[in-house]
């Protein structure tokens, strides 16, 4: 019933879910674009602050959930940033050093990646995957591709539950007690999941035939709230961020 | 929805060597509550699937208002607007991400306009009292809620007859109460309701009439009569409902006894005094 | 192992999108043709996609005792062929980015190239080669899965190296740096994924 | 298998914001039949998982013979040889291709020799009377058979206490009979059996004692007493067992009434004459 994907849960329970994808798309993708296009200071930093304010404010993600969602990208950013910061050379034996150029690049990268990640969160935490797919449909991505993607989303929820149930059952019977047992358990689990996904698809096909399924999985889109005020505000905010970032070296 | 007469005559279904149904006769009472009883593996699901047109019988025929079911594309399409089947496992039927989208699937396949589809979705959700779930993701719903969403999906096709496979299986007492309320709402909306179940206590209480599956054959009749007959329930690999066991142990005739209150009423005259 | 959101400069993002696009579009075309000819294949392709997604989101034990996520694309390439995997991987990577915060939207093009194109093609090539040479199936499966994983990780290292040339030792140094850092987790994982693949194949063909 | 005393003290479990168990106290009677009753979502499964060591409580402790469960690797390993949990859905527990391989999974992980593993598998299959299924592929088995195979898998770990989540859910009367026979065989083999269920009629009849989950808290006692109390069952979102409803409607005290025969026995003196 609950597969515990914190981002998915946040998106479904966000007050912004009812907003139209057009409005959210302009703001969130605009922020993301600003994060990677503008100079990290002050452009990226501004995007990071704005995104954080949106996430904790109107999108209502909450601190604890944000930390739970954010630690994985944070760790991967830190590893990458550290790798950039340290320089290697092997002309006269392997040498590691930290140069000014390397440090500067690393700081810029850290700010940009953090800003972009937070900007991406504004979209991911306010918009369920299925609404994004509906948006892609409107962008003329062919129907069969959208239907397959939507089904992947639906199947994944059940399959994740199965995966954790199988893991718990194997653990209870000491399936991860040593390396040999772990490999055996993992392979049995993966094979069982594969067969289960197949079985699930066949049974659903049967069930859908009774509801008139022939060649398309059409559904009606729920109504979404469009707001020109929201849209105008978003554009204004993005223009302000861009203008400030570009004029920063001049005014300073 | 007007009532239409669904019936089956001389129905036989074989899968390979195995005979699942053998010359089964059934006439579904219009606008009534029919419970189809049988043990697991007795062919209940196959019978429902045959009635819904999903399985083509090896012999015999399914009829609506006396007209044979036509297994061509158009015939099946028309049949699905008369008869809808709700599978035991709601996940075999629910494919969309949220409730609103899922329930809209069937009516869209009927080629209705968006306005009509929306109206049908709203009606189906209202009948099942799950309007508040419309925008919820299906994977976050409880089992009982998913069961009702699956029914809403079938109901949105506005069938005259709704076949439900084990609608109360896995539900706790409160879930059963909610399901009963949903079934009552269906009946009030002029839908004929057929349930397949092995829960004899529930079936006896709920149904107007019952059909018992034994060795691929159907016996139809009143609940107390059929389910109170030790020979019938034994050969169907079922058991007698508890209230009928009590009645039998005390020597009362089963007729009219369907639940605790009717048992108590039948018993009262024979008590020394109100205890 | 994916490149995180915002990690690549904008020029690199655009370039990798452009490089991946033809492969993904080719795969998508195949999928559409298949879906139109056999409507039921939508459900099976979706099952395959969900399986890949779930596989990539569960932790695998690796031989050093640490655990990490398998790519699962080698198995997919052998079962469904690389063009289909290019499409399915794109969706899986999009889901990973937005549902697991693993990868990103701006870096999707680059990640699709390493995980959805390079990995499956390398894995499939080795699988085909092994079959041509008449090697035992287990060898082919092991090579396909292990090298799909390894090539994904090497391509990612090159992508990162290109974006961040080392101020001291240039491109070669930066690629070596990233390859070295990720080798700690990825080499054992690739071996584990290869072994796992052999075991899974055996279980599946037993049934 | 010697009997060991499983107990829980001040057990609280929270998932995020939600409190599932709050200060629950439980002492599992050695060698007895305990039924744990609660509605869906009341925390039955969480309680079983906590007792089995799979969930670590936010507060309180699980004890075996008065010794706190140690959540380290070795401690959990030892605990799993004392307590085993069988999930409601057998498909969550069965992942091998055939019955023999599945049941041998646990013993193999214990590092036993092949001879010992075979002996354990044979014993487990024998207790559950499914020796004839040993070589059968799991996907060909019926639901009831799969349920018994899942129990055999847990039993092959030779635990002192077996926790079963909804063992009778989805089973028809014959399946229930077979499950009861299996549980009896477990008890005869000196295993303490705890079942979690919402099937009040079954629990009243089967159990020596019951524990009812209400708002994350446990009330323990005798079946007729607790399940006959309208206030208890209402707050647990359950219903009274049918025989206790009949008893109450006739003004009989619930004590000692657990099934049809004891109800009839309690009733007989008050009848005018044998009907």
Tell me what the structure shows.
The complex is a heterotetramer, with one copy of chain A (252 residues), two copies of chain B (275 residues) and one copy of chain C (207 residues). Chain A has 252 residues and is mostly helical. Chain A has two domains: 3-127 and 226-250, no CATH class; 134-210, no CATH class. Chain A contains nine helices and two strands; from the N terminus they run ααααββααααα. Chain A has helices at residues 6-13, 21-37, 40-56, 63-85, 100-124, 129-138, 143-172, 179-209, 228-251, and strands at 86-89, 95-98. A two-stranded antiparallel ribbon of chain A has the order 1-2. In chain A, helix 4 (63-85) runs antiparallel to helix 5 (100-124). The longest helix of chain A has 31 residues, at 179-209. Chain A is flat. Chain B is globular, with a radius of gyration of 20 Å. Chain B has eleven helices and ten strands. By secondary structure, chain B is α/β, with parallel strands linked by helices. The longest helix of chain B has 16 residues, at 173-188. In chain B, helix 3 (99-109) packs across helix 4 (114-127) and helix 4 (114-127) packs across helix 5 (143-155). Chain B has a six-stranded mixed beta sheet, with helices on both faces. Chain B has a four-stranded antiparallel beta sheet with strand order 2-1-4-5, with helices on one face. Chain B has helices at 44-51, 73-80, 99-109, 114-127, 143-155, 173-188, 200-206, 223-227, 230-235, 242-249, 260-267, and strands at residues 6-15, 18-27, 33-37, 59-64, 67-68, 83-86, 161-165, 192-197, 209-214, 217-221. Chain C contains seven helices and two strands, in the order ααββααααα. The longest helix of chain C has 37 residues, at 170-206. Chain C is an all-alpha fold and 207 residues long. The model of chain C has no long low-confidence stretch (mean pLDDT 90). Chain C has helices spanning 10-37, 41-57, 73-80, 82-100, 108-132, 137-163, 170-206, and strands at 60-61, 67-68. In chain C, strands 1-2 form a two-stranded antiparallel sheet. Chains B, D: InterPro entries: AAA+_ATPase (IPR003593), ABC_transporter-like_ATP-bd (IPR003439), ABC_transporter-like_CS (IPR017871), ABC_transpr_CbiO/EcfA_su (IPR015856), Co_trans_ATP-bd (IPR005876), ECF_ABC_transporter_ATP-bd (IPR050095), P-loop_NTPase (IPR027417). Chains B, D: GO terms for molecular function: ATP binding; ATP hydrolysis activity; ATPase-coupled transmembrane transporter activity. Chains B, D: It is found in: Cell membrane. Chains B, D: It is a peripheral membrane protein. Chains B, D: This is ABC transporter ATP-binding protein.
């Amino acid at each position: 019933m609950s597969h515990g994907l914190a981002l998915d849960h946040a998106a479904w329970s966000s007050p912004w879910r009812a907003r139209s994808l057009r409005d959210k798309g302009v703001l969130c993708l605009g922020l993301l674009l600003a994060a990677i296009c503008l100079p990290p200071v002050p452009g990226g930093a501004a995007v990071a602050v704005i995104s954080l304010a949106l996430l904790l404010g109107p999108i209502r993600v909450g601190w604890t959930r944000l930390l739970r969602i954010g630690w994985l990208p944070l760790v991967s950013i830190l590893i990458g940033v550290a790798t950039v910061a340290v320089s290697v050379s092997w002309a006269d034996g392997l040498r590691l050093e930290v140069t000014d150029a390397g440090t500067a690049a690393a700081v810029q990268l850290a700010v940009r990646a953090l800003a972009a990640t937070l900007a991406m969160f504004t979209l991911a935490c306010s918009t369920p995957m299925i609404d994004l797919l509906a948006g892609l449909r409107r962008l003329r991505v062919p129907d069969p591709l959208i239907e397959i993607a939507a089904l992947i989303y639906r199947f994944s929820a059940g399959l994740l539950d199965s995966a954790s149930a199988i893991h718990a059952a194997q653990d209870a019977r000491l399936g991860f007690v040593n390396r040999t047992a772990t490999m055996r358990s993992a392979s049995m689990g993966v094979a069982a999941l594969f067969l289960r996904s197949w079985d699930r698809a066949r049974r659903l096909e049967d069930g859908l035939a009774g509801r008139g399924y022939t060649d398309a999985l059409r559904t009606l889109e729920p109504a979404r709230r469009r707001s020109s005020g929201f849209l105008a505000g978003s554009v204004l905010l993005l223009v302000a961020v861009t203008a400030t970032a570009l004029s920063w070296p001049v005014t300073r | 929805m007007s009532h239409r007469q669904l019936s089956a005559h001389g129905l036989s279904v074989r899968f390979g060597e195995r005979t699942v149904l053998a010359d089964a006769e059934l006439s579904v009472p219009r606008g009534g509550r029919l419970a189809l009883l049988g043990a697991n593996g007795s062919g209940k699901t196959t019978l429902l699937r045959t009635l819904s047109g999903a399985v083509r019988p090896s012999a015999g025929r399914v009829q609506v208002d006396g007209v044979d079911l036509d297994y061509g594309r158009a015939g099946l399409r028309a049949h699905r607007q008369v008869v809808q089947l709700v599978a035991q496992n709601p996940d075999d039927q629910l494919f969309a991400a949220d409730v609103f989208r899922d329930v809209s699937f069937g009516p869209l396949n009927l080629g209705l306009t968006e306005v009509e589809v929306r109206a049908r979705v709203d009606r189906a959700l209202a009948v099942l009292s799950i309007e508040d779930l419309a925008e919820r993701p299906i994977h976050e719903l409880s089992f009982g809620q998913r069961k009702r969403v699956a029914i809403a999906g079938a109901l949105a096709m506005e069938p005259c007859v709704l076949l439900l496979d084990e609608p109360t299986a896995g539900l706790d007492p409160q879930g059963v109460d909610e399901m009963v309320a949903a079934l009552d709402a269906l009946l009030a909306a002029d839908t004929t309701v057929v349930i397949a179940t092995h829960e004899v206590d529930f079936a006896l209480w709920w149904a107007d009439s019952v059909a018992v599956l034994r060795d691929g054959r159907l016996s139809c009749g009143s609940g107390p009569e059929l389910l109170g007959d030790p020979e019938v329930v034994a050969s169907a690999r079922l058991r007698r409902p508890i209230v009928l066991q009590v009645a039998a142990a005390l020597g009362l005739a089963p007729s009219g006894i369907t639940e605790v209150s009717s048992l108590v009423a039948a018993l009262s005259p024979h008590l020394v005094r109100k205890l | 192992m994916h490149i995180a959101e915002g990690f690549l400069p904008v020029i690199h993002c655009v370039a990798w999108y452009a490089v991946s696009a033809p492969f993904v579009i080719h795969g998508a075309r195949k999928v559409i043709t298949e879906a139109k000819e056999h409507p039921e294949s939508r459900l099976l392709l979706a099952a395959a996609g969900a399986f890949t997604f779930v596989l990539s989101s569960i932790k695998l034990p690796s031989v050093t005792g640490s655990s990490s996520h398998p790519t699962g694309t080698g198995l997919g390439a052998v079962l469904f062929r690389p063009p289909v995997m290019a499409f399915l991987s794109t969706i899986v990577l999009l889901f990973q980015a937005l549902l697991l915060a693993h990868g990103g939207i701006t870096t999707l093009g680059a990640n699709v190239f390493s995980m959805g194109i390079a990995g499956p093609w390398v894995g499939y090539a080795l699988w085909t080669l092994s079959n041509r040479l008449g090697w035992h199936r287990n060898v082919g499966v092991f090579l396909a899965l292990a090298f799909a994983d390894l090539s994904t990780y090497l391509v990612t290292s090159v992508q990162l190296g290109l974006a961040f040339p080392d101020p001291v030792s240039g491109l070669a140094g930066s690629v070596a740096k990233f390859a070295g850092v990720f080798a700690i987790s990825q080499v054992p994982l690739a071996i584990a994924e290869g072994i796992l693949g052999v075991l899974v194949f055996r279980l599946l063909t037993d049934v």
